[in-house]
Amino acid sequence: MKLSHKTISLPSEGFFYDNELSCGKIQIYPFTAHEEDILSENSSNDYELIDQILKSMIVNDVNIDDLLAVDVDAILLAQRIISYGTSYDVKITCPHCSDENDYSLDLKKITSVDKIYNFSNIIQFENYSIEVVPETWEMRKKCKSKSDTLKNIIKSVTKHNSIDDFVDNRFLSRDAREFRKKYKSIMPELNFSLFTCSCKACDKPMPINLKINRSFFGLTPNYKITLHKEIFNLAYFSEGAFNQDIVYRLPVYLRRFYLNELRTTKEKEKEQSQEGFSPNEKSEGVPRGPFGKK
Ligand SMILES: [Zn+2]
User: Fold this and answer.
1) Ligand 1 centroid to residue 196 C-alpha, Å
2) pTM, whole model, 2 decimals?
3) For residue 200, how far is its CA from the centre of ligand 1 (angstroms)?
4) What is the CA(96)–ligand 1 centre distance, in A?
5) Of 5, 73, 92, 109, which sees the most CB atoms within 10 A?
């Protein structure tokens, strides 16, 4: 079975690439059990797992490390929507009264911010200027602190030879704040600011900090058991219509669709046989549990 791919618009609009991504689009395959298997690994190296799924789902022949970090966010966000839908449930503890709030966010609301980009990006200060570059996926993976990030995205500083020394010892915190604001305004960005909400108990505004990382997909090591039960059930109860290999390579949304169809059909068959219709041997062993009773 050949998977059909989906085309995703990149927040960078392709501006910072000199390869096929300069058109501002990238093609991705939908998640299958293979990517779910990777993300539900019992591993503490989240970036390594994300790298594996990016390599497996991106159709274009590009170096993952060269992708802009914001474009990777957009790719993962698009994948989450394609494979699991746009609604995203979060639990937020109110910082004012500690009440627990349940929210369902609509991921479609996260969009790219419209900007006009330049190849040369200079941030001007009173006595000096800083030349910057966008953060790539490789940079994000290596950064362990805010100063690491600064050292990566600063390409040059007038009158300073060492960027490390500038960031560590000479960059005034007032200028650094200003720098972050200006940098944000000239670089591609996803707009999360639409997610504002107020606490149901005290009515005060609460921030929603949505991070697009491994846990964004919610595929914990426990999920692995559910996943393989789903594969087993679809292969076993479809009585040969699907084999394990085919189910493993089905897009997640199709696997779930077929599972639901199979469950509905089996339940109908069971009802009919109980109502006195001709007994149907196939109605035995109606699958339960992992068929996602919703
Ligand atoms: Zn509150």
Assistant:
1) 14
2) 0.87
3) 7
4) 5
5) 73
